[in-house]
Amino acid sequence: MTDNNFNYDSFVRNPPNPIDIDNLFLQDSLFSSTSPSPSPYNSFNISSLNINGLKMFLQNKIELLNNFFSLKHISFGGVVDTHLHPKQVHFLSKRLTNYTVFSSVLDTSQHVRSSGGVSLFVENFLASHVHTYTSHSSRLLSVDLYFKGNVKLRIFVVYIPPTSDQSLRDETIDLLIRALSDAK
């Protein structure tokens, strides 16, 4: 990000939404049977899904994740609101043999309903480029990748709690803004 005038706070609190979600059908958008066009050379497919608890129907959800990642050729799959500790996610992710998983810590001490738990599934051929990953909280994770030619990429996975827990939501957004500013 080279623009020093970029307003992180405004972007995070009011992100642009060019897609009309009222007319978006899950089957048509995520699991359509039409094969996506091949990705251009040196490009990534990135997704972010709110899994809303991976414990529930975990076998089905893991299989759905695997099918979705494979069908859409996902390079980086952010999965939020897992409600799982990193060891639990790592155990379940063994079913996704083409991916390496990086997960946040899980803090269940205060906000059980918004406990979070975020993970990033990285395609194995890209996982070797992961240099570090940091769990900023149970709702924010960053993964740093280093590529040839001094190219660095930092990916954030964030779960912003619902408005019903406004203080935790604000705390998470503020933490994200600080992490974005630090990355700049």
Automatic annotation (TrEMBL):
Write down the InterPro entries for this protein, in alphabetical order.
Endo/exonu/phosph_ase_sf (IPR036691)
* Name of the protein described by the UniProt record: Uncharacterized protein
Supply the source organism for this entry. Answer: Rhizophagus clarus
